[in-house]
Amino acid sequence: MSTWTQKDIAKKLAEIDFAMLSTRASNGHIASRPMSNNGDVEFDGDNYFFAFEDSRVVGEIKSDSKIGVSFTGTKGLLGKPPVFISIEATADLIKDKDVFRKHWAKDIERWAKDGVDTPGLVLIKAHAQRIHYWDGEDQGEVALDLPSSGNA
C-alpha cells in the first residue's frame, strides 16, 4: 500500500470530467448534483465549477459553504476497480469575469450563451480541506492545510 500525494491526486483528476458536488439543503439533507470540471484539472487544492446565481446549488452554498465533491474514474487498469476520490471543501462564489476567463472552456457556452458576459454566471471555487482516495488497492486520506488562493 502506498501513500498518494497531492500530485498523484492531480494526475487522477485529470482523467475524470464529471463530479458530484454535494451541499446542505435548506431542510438539512444532503443535496448532490453532477458538475463538470471542464478540463480545469491543474489541481492545487481547488476545483472550479460554473453555475448560475439563481440556482439551488449557489443558494445552498450561500447558506453553508461546506461542500463535498466526489469523483469516480471510468475504468481501472488491468481489471482493477476505478479510482474514487472524495474531497471535503469550503466553497467560495466568484463573480469576477477575469477569473471566469482563467477557468473558461468552450463547452460551457452550451449553457452560458454569452460566454463570461452571461448574466447571473457564478464560478464555484471548491477549496479542498481533506481528500480521501481509493482504487481497490490503495486508499488513504490527504489532509490539506492549503492557504486560500484568493479568487483565482
Gyration radius, in Å: 16 Å
Number of strands: 7
The CATH topology: Pnp Oxidase, Chain A
CATH homologous superfamily?
A: Electron Transport, Fmn-binding Protein, Chain A
Q: Globular, elongated, flat, extended or rod-shaped: what is the shape?
A: globular
Number of helices: 3
**Overall domain count:** 1
Helix and strand run: HEEEHEEHEE
Model regions low in confidence, pLDDT < 50 over at least 5 residues: none
Biggest pleated-sheet summary: 7 strands, antiparallel
Distance between the termini: 35 Å
Mean pLDDT: 86
CATH class designation = Mainly Beta
Report the structural category: mainly beta
Give me the CATH architecture, please.
Roll
Helix content: 10-25%
Q: What proportion strand?
A: 35-45%
Question: Quick gist of this model?
Answer:
The protein is mainly beta and 152 residues long.
Your description of this structure?
The protein has 152 residues and is mainly beta. The chain has a single domain (6-143), classed as Pnp Oxidase, Chain A. Helices cover 14% and strands 38% of the residues. The protein has 3 helices and 7 strands. The protein has helices at residues 6-13, 56-63, 97-102; strands at residues 18-24, 30-36, 46-52, 66-72, 84-94, 121-134, 139-143. Strands 1, 2, 3, 4, 5, 6 and 7 form a 7-stranded antiparallel β-sheet that branches. The radius of gyration is 16 Å and the shape is globular. The model has no long low-confidence stretch (mean pLDDT 86).
